[in-house]
Amino acid sequence: MKPSDEIIAEHEAVLKVLDILGIICDESSELPQMPLAHIEYIIDFFSIFVDKCHHGKEEDILFPELYIVGTPRQKNFVGFLIKEHQKARVLVQEMLETIKVMKGADGLLTTPASEAAADKLIAVSRSYINLMRFHINNENQNLLPLIEKLFSRAKQDEFLTLFEQLESERIGNGLHQNFHNMINKLSLIYFS
To answer: Which of 19, 98, 149, 171 has the most beta carbons within 10 angstroms of its beta carbon?
Structure first.
């Protein structure tokens, strides 16, 4: 396995969750109650798996190495990716804040405040979906080939070891698999 293989596998999991969130957004406009528990699982996935683990691997391991060996253009590209990570964090925080408002209204879309919060949650979720789909495509098409081109196989093996350490430190053992189990459960609900 190469670092790009691990990143692609994580991207595929993220895309699946983005698809589930998209279905929830599409269906929620017709429901008297949003599936807040499912949305909270998804936001946890974005906060923990995507940001702390996946983006951590990029920002703490890959990007610093690219800054050392990359051309000015490649360094600008890394800066662009970091800005997208920051935008994603802001959107996830907005989702969390909106969920708090909705929970205060028991998640029922019967008051103007809860309806407005639901509309905002859907809009912010769709912004996150669009940002992350673009971001993942950009990384798959541009970042990952760059890593394979610039770094020796030995250095890439070192990245994999560092990935494993980071994941263990940031999210602990077992949580990665728990997220995949959650994805599978939500897939059965929303892709049936």
So the answer is: 98
Mean confidence (pLDDT) of the chain: 91
Give the amino acid at 127. S
Burial class (CB in 10 A: 0-12, 13-18, 19+), 72: exposed
As beta bridge partners, residue 108 has 33
Phi then psi for residue 4, to 5 deg, are -65, -35
User: What digits encode the pLDDT tens for the residues 99-133?
Assistant: 888 776 554 555 666 778 888 999 999 999 999 99
Cβ contact 95:121 at 8 Å: yes
Exposed, middle or buried: residue 178 (CB in 10 Å: 0-12, 13-18, 19+)? middle
Average pLDDT on 63-81 reads 95
Residues 140, 11 contacting (CB under 8 angstroms)? yes
Angle between helices 153-171 and 175-190 (to 10 degrees): 80
